[in-house]
Amino acid sequence: MFELIRDVGWRTVENVHGLGGITRFGSRLVLETLAPPYRLRRVLDELYNTGVLSLAIVCASGTAVGLVLGLQGYNTLVRFGAEQSVGAVVGLSLVRELGPVLTALLVTGRAGSAVAAEIGAMVATEQLDGLRMMSVDPIDFVTQPKALALALAMPLLSALFIVFGLFGGYLVAVGLLGVDAGTYVSSLENNIDFRNDVLGSILKSLVFGALVGLVATWRGYTSAPNAAGVSRATTGAVVQASVATLMFDYVITALWGVGV
Amino acid sequence: MTSPGLRPDAANPPHSRVDVVSVRLAFGERRVFDGLSCRFSASKISVILGASGVGKSTLLRLMAGLQRPDYGDIWIGEQEISRLSERQVRRVRRRLGMMFQGGALLDSMSVFDNVALPLREHTKLHEKEISERVHGQFEAVGLKRVDALLPGQLSGGMKKRVALARAMITEPDVLLIDEPFSGLDPLAVRLIEALLVEVNHAKGLTMILTNHHIGSTMRMADEVVFLVDGGAISGTVRELKESIDPRIQRFLQAAGTGPALEDAS
Questions:
Q1: pLDDT digits (tens, 9 = 90+) for B79-130
Q2: ipTM of the complex
Q3: What is the rounded CA–CA span in Å between residue A190 and residue A49?
Q4: How many CA atoms does the CB half-sphere of A119 hold within 13 Å?
Q5: Distance from A4 to chain B by nearest Cα, in Å?
Q6: Which site among A31, A49, A126, A221 would you substitute to test the B interface, given the most B Cβ atoms closer than 10 Å to its Cβ?
Q7: Quick check: B64 and A135 CB within 8 A?
Q8: Using CA atoms, how far apart are residues B145 and B220, in angstroms rounded to an integer?
């Protein structure tokens, strides 16, 4: 019993310590982003790594999700004789929820894990210490461009995911199930509101991008300097960023909804 | 912590180029240094010797400001660094160069960009001047046509040379070198050894190495710091050889340096 209490105590202290650590680290990232030198070239390189290299997976997944939404939406709506609203169902689902959330999960798996592994490997091979010895701050030089690139890439990738999802829904609804093309598009147009839906979607993907960037760089930066440490950092980055994304999704949805 | 025939460290005042004074350090339950004091004279080649796990690399990291002691002082010239903020230590590090055991070259950057990085970060030199200085450094360490190569494409010996070039590009006062001969064949060991001695003579910088290669230590060291039992025994190579301290004797015998010691001297 005593050991259990002690373990719970230790874990609580560790978690509070970790929370303090990631908060300080996040503050440093923000400060380094705002203060010169602005490492535009490095941010562009990282945008390529996280954004451009994620394009294929995001577009393919977006199309697949749109196809499923179109099919499921039609099959459900047809029972109520409301199959003409399939465009609105596909659009609202993608713009409000699935676009930002699924893109964040996909980018976490592809780019977030890669970022954590790369920084972890740099810790293990003393590359970050090498930078410190050159009086170069590794948070400024290595982690900040990666985190910023993830935050910037996420809304763009999410927008692409939504566009390809809408296209997938169109293919199924119009091409396969015989819904009128004009009805599909006008249903979309009439039901998606810019402020409530589109701005909320952009806000969500920005927050998710910042979260994934923060968690991935933090896990890599604080990893143990060995192979097991890199492995733990990579797994931890994916798990923590995914869970954080889903939790923040609820918070933003609730707050954004209250504000309407 | 004194030893017959060797200079007691605690008696040395902290006025030399690098001084470690009464340092204590523990990782959890494991105590690495317990009142360690030693001095590394300016413009000399000092070699840190000791058994595996005794704290040789940790001592280098302390001097580099990459590790903080639990207690004690680390002096780089007239500057005590153990209680400085990271930002202040960064300023002191401009006078230091460090060559890591594995090179610590940035994987994603070419060899040229790796060596040019400190100049691009801390000087306003034009690319042409940077190129001239980098190529001058390449020449000094015997490297040719490596500009566009990535660190992953280099052999162990070449990596060490690039790491040395990068450590020296800002012309530091003190060069810290972690296991420069590990993983190298005997010929490469001799080449790197000759290179380090040449650099020391040419630039007159303070060079502090960790090394478990006794032969090269005997050939190149001006001073030896032998780490043992949480402290250090310092002296010249001759003093080390003549020491009757059983811990040093055991170490040298285990390294098989009886005849080699004589050859080296």
A1: 999 999 999 999 999 989 999 999 999 999 999 999 999 999 999 999 999 9
A2: 0.86
A3: 37
A4: 31
A5: 22
A6: A126
A7: no
A8: 29
